[in-house]
Design a protein that fits this description.
Helix content is 29%, strand content 34%. It is an alpha/beta fold. The protein has a single domain, classed as Rossmann fold. The strands form 3 sheets. A 7-stranded mixed sheet has the order 7-6-5-12-13-15-14, sandwiched between helices. The chain is globular, with a radius of gyration of 18 Å. Keywords: Methyltransferase, Transferase. This is Methyltransferase, FkbM family.
Length: 265
């Protein structure tokens, strides 16, 4: 990891920072790179620890957020002051955008992969949004029942594409309802590489109570089950094709969401 959390608590002196500078806004550390950028008039720091990773190398290393179109959907659909739940938060791209620019009351991040969530922690601390981001559930995955027998299958070229494999390790998974508790969840992002139906089914009480808006990536193999779930739970799904794979992102709006207008993806 580029920076350990404990190291971030001790500010780097200006003289030390100058020695670490390799280009304007880019600072090299023993474990990786910190990129300083200006986004929407705000200073944003990105941690780049895995140079082969798609998101870190192609986007964050160049000072930009990944999935700009999806972030625009978030900007339009997220209610200011709401609670944002990020299931499959990866290195924190979407969670950081919400925390920095959309005025949430709370951001809750869930990510089982330590290679990803260590970068997420660095990004949260560097950007001083740790007062709004709850990182309690880093190291956990989501499933319909709580067990601790999952492993991870992933490649460093695409850290966020890792899949949980049942019976292959000691990673704990819990129902999403347990993570959310009694929070009034406003918006849930789900990007879990094929386990989206497990997540949706574990949101039973939250959906009944909050009817949150959702942005979800759906694998082709899960489309039929997903469409049945959407119909059964009173949601409308607005589709958007992913750029880098054949899966689709869907914005879900509940039929009882009275504050929602028309939408075009």
């Amino acid at each position: 990891m580029t920076i350990l959390a404990k190291d971030l608590l001790n500010p780097i002196a200006a003289s030390e920072l100058a020695e670490l500078t390799v280009a304007p806004g880019i600072f090299r550390l023993p474990g990786g790179t910190i990129v300083r950028s200006e986004v929407n008039g705000e200073t944003v720091f990105f941690t780049v620890a895995a140079r082969r990773d798609l998101i870190q190398n192609k986007y964050h290393a160049n000072g930009v957020f990944y999935e700009q179109e999806e972030l625009e959907i978030l900007r339009r659909a997220f209610p200011p002051g709401g609670i944002y739940i990020d299931i499959g938060a990866n290195v924190g791209n979407h969670a950081l955008f919400v925390a920095k620019f959309l005025r949430p009351s709370e951001v809750v991040v869930v990510e089982p992969n330590p290679v990803a969530y260590k970068v997420l922690v660095s990004n949260v601390l560097l950007n001083h949004v740790d007062d709004v981001v709850d990182m309690t559930w880093l190291g956990y995955g989501i499933a319909e029942a709580a067990v601790d027998t999952f492993g991870l299958d992933f490649h460093m070229s695409n850290v966020g594409a890792g899949r949980l494999v049942e019976g292959a390790g000691d990673i704990s998974v819990v129902p999403a309802d347990d993570v959310i508790g009694d929070r009034a969840a406003s918006f849930i992002k789900i990007d879990v590489e094929g386990m989206e139906m497990h997540v949706l089914r574990s949101l039973k009480e939250t959906v009944k109570r909050c009817k949150p808006r959702m942005l979800i990536e759906v694998d082709r193999e899960n489309r039929e089950a997903f469409e049945a779930w959407v119909s059964e739970h009173g949601y409308t799904a607005y589709s958007r094709r992913k750029k880098y794979n054949p899966n689709r992102n869907f914005l879900l709006i509940h039929e009882e969401d009275q504050t929602w207008g028309s939408w075009t993806c």
